[in-house]
Amino acid sequence: MDGYEVLTALIESAWKELNSSDAGRRDLCLDVVSDVLETGRLTQNDVERAVERAVTVTLSGESYAVRESALHAVCTASTLYELPYRVVEPLAAGVDGFEPLLLAYVLAVLGCTHDQAALPIVERFLHHPHSEVRREASEAVTELHWHRESAQGETA
Asked: How do residues 126-156 score in pLDDT, each as one tens digit?
């Protein structure tokens, strides 16, 4: 097996283990997914599939720790790969249901998409009562504006 095959086998094994009844074990499985994503060696298709699955876990009725681990994996992917908005759009649709720490993760992910569809969602949180949420919202808005201006400059 080459390195890529080992990584995809690891991530597939982690997804199978995610069906465990033990929340701690599910949390560890998501840590493995995050570690594999962090290598930066997966194909774009593999990354998008992994992120879609992690988004599903994030929006599930799982424990806070498991949902946080799933969002951590999504954040890891969003910093190393260009994630299309459509892959994380379910997070945007459920944005009002997140606890402040998880909401901060979601806002960071939305900013990393560079998709202007995320802008009105992120801007809603610029005046959130929690400072961490406001900070992430501000950084995401800055990222989205910067990318829009950069794209406009390239077409000029």
From this structure: 999 999 999 999 999 999 998 666 666 665 4
Question: Look-up: residue for tokens 């998501």?
Answer: 30
Backbone CA torsion sign across 17, 22, 27, 31: negative
| Per-residue 3-state assignment (H helix, E strand, C coil) for 18-64 | CCCCCHHHHHHHHHHHHHHHHCCCCCHHHHHHHHHHHHHHHCCCCCH
pLDDT, tens digit, for every residue of 25-60?
A: 999 999 999 999 999 999 999 999 999 999 999 999
| Structure-token pair, residue 12 | 């597939």
| Distances in whole angstroms, Cα of residue 1 to Cα of each of 4, 9, 43 | 8, 10, 16
For the record, the structure tokens of 106 come out as: 């979601």
Share in percent of the chain as helix, strand, coil (round to 5):
80, 0, 20
Check if the beta carbon of residue 60 is closer than 8 Å to that of residue 90: no
> How far apart are the C-alpha atoms of 70 and 144, rounded to whole Å?
23
> Is the Cβ–Cβ distance between 110 and 121 less than 8 Å?
yes
